[in-house]
Design a protein that fits this description.
It is a single chain. The chain is α+β, with helices and mostly antiparallel strands. It folds into three domains: about 50 residues; about 70 residues; about 130 residues, Roll (Mannose-Binding Protein A, Chain A). The protein contains four helices and eight strands. Strands 1, 2, 3, 4, 5, 6, 7 and 8 form an eight-stranded mixed β-sheet that branches. It is rod-shaped. The protein binds methyl 2-acetamido-2-deoxy-alpha-D-glucopyranoside.
Amino acid sequence: MSEDIYNNVIGTEFEGKNKDRVEMTVDIYESVDCVRDCDFKKETNTTQPLQHTGSDSVKTRISRAAVVCLVLLCVLLLTAVIVLCVHIHTKNTNYTEEKDQLLTKITNLTEERDQLIIKNRNVLNQLSIPDGWIYYQSSFYYMSNETRNWTESSKDCQKRGADLIIINTREEQDFVKKITDRREFWIGLTDSEVEGTWKWVDGSTVTYEFWERETKEPNGGTLENCVVTYLTKNPQLKGWLDVPCNGAYQWICEKNISPLIQQ
Ligand code: 2F8
């Protein structure tokens, strides 16, 4: 009995202890399981998502940077376009202003030119009033009726605010031929100072010449130092001829008004 009791007690105790042990073991296993599971969970919950989160954030950052770059580029482009537009507009405005200014200038110059033409005409009209004067290509010409020697003729021209004619061009020579019409006139050419060196009354040298070739003018040497347009005694001769300066001929004065016109 006591043995039974003992056994019961022991057995109970044993059973109890065993139960406890079983329970503890279960707990331990559970703990171990838990630890394993938890670790696994931890692993699955921490490691894997961490990997995912890292690459995602990098990607996100990259995409954000790309977006920012794109936006910045757009802003830059827009700014450039605006700046260009403003620049072109300003330039266009400047060109338009410049064009308007030039047009105004042209209008002003045209008006000025027209006024000057009118002024010139008035001046010419006033200047051509004196009797006996003829206007041709910026010069007035006076043809004397009386005859004098070369020096007196030159003096008369100077009294009239002019001097003996200076023939510079073929056109002027043709004009002289036309107005003299086979008559003898002094012109302002002489070699009185240096024989053979022909000079006009203003001291200029001869650029255009119309000497008579048939008689090899000038052919008078020191005896003939002044020049006439024609000799009635030699009507076949058409060019200039040197004759003695004390001969008596009509004369032509010339008053050049180019300096007056250019002022
Ligand atoms: O035949 C040309 C010759 O004619 C005259 O001399 C005869 C002229 N003299 C006068 O008229 C004074 C020359 O100058 C001219 O060369």
